[in-house]
Amino acid sequence: MRVPDTFTIAIDGPAASGKGTLARRLAVHYGFHHLDTGLTYRAVAKALLDRGLPLDDEEIAAGVARNLDLRHLDRTVLAAHHVGEAASKVAVMPAVRRALVAAQRSFAQTLPGTVLDGRDIGTVVCPDAPVKLYVIASPEARARRRHAEIEAGSGKADFAEILADLTRRDARDMGRTDSPLKPADDAHLLDTTEMDIEAAFLAAKRLVDEALAKRQA
Ligand SMILES: Nc1ncnc2c1ncn2[C@@H]1O[C@H](COP(=O)(O)OP(=O)(O)O)[C@@H](O)[C@H]1O
Ligand SMILES: Nc1ccn([C@@H]2O[C@H](COP(=O)(O)OP(=O)(O)O)[C@@H](O)[C@H]2O)c(=O)n1
């Protein structure tokens, strides 16, 4: 069922650009529901890894994707660096994407206010979203952020390895045939390389406020 007055904020961008942080802040600020769609791909990858199943069998992976419950996505368990890497491998498979996109769309279409972040929200999942943000930052800034995040949590991390992993994942996400990572034609570009979290939030809020005002006019 589609709620007549739905409003979706679509946020896309590469790994560690700050889209999740931004999405959570915006959701709290506007009282919207948030879906981190990266967690859905991570959950499929983790289920396969945990069961010792291959990451490149489309039928098996799609079966897992079709049975995924969006209400039970545990960010702490799914955040591990190697799960992100595995997620980008299952994310190239069209049958997996079809199953997950259907669930993500239904989230956006049945709740009045939503924020979704991922790689294809503005282009595929919610192409009619009234406001789309494409968040980027230099690879070095993103690797620094991920490195700091890992060191603050579980322990040691190698900066050069993280930078190499992010670069490889960018290439896989941008180079795949189905729903590659790219800005929607009507997306606002937000480069957070020189912005702290607060500055990025304020820049995004200004764009969302403009879209809300347009909707109400
Ligand atoms: N503008 C920013 N400046 C500095 N650090 C940031 C900024 N935005 C996010 N971070 C930090 O960078 C890390 C990755 O951010 P996250 O929102 O998880 O990125 P993404 O969802 O794009 O992978 C987190 O530790 C977060 O606190
Ligand atoms: N909408 C989405 C979200 C994630 N993904 C895939 O899932 C992987 C993990 O996404 P994520 O958003 O959790 O990754 P981070 O940016 O948090 O590192 C990405 O590298 C993509 O391959 C996707 O293909 N489409």
UniProtKB/TrEMBL annotation:
One of its GO terms (biological process) is pyrimidine nucleotide metabolic process. Its main location: cytoplasm. Residues 9-198 form the Cytidylate kinase domain. It is an enzyme of class 2 (transferase). GO terms for molecular function: ATP binding; CMP kinase activity; dCMP kinase activity. Keywords: ATP-binding, Cytoplasm, Kinase, Nucleotide-binding, Transferase. Its EC number is 2.7.4.25. One of its GO terms (cellular component) is cytoplasm. The keyword S-adenosyl-L-methionine does not apply. ATP binds at residues 13-21. It catalyses: dCMP + ATP = dCDP + ADP; CMP + ATP = CDP + ADP. It comes from the Bacteria. It is found in: Cytoplasm. Belongs to the cytidylate kinase family. Type 1 subfamily. This is Cytidylate kinase. The lineage of its organism: Bacteria, Pseudomonadati, Pseudomonadota, Alphaproteobacteria, Hyphomicrobiales. The gene is cmk.
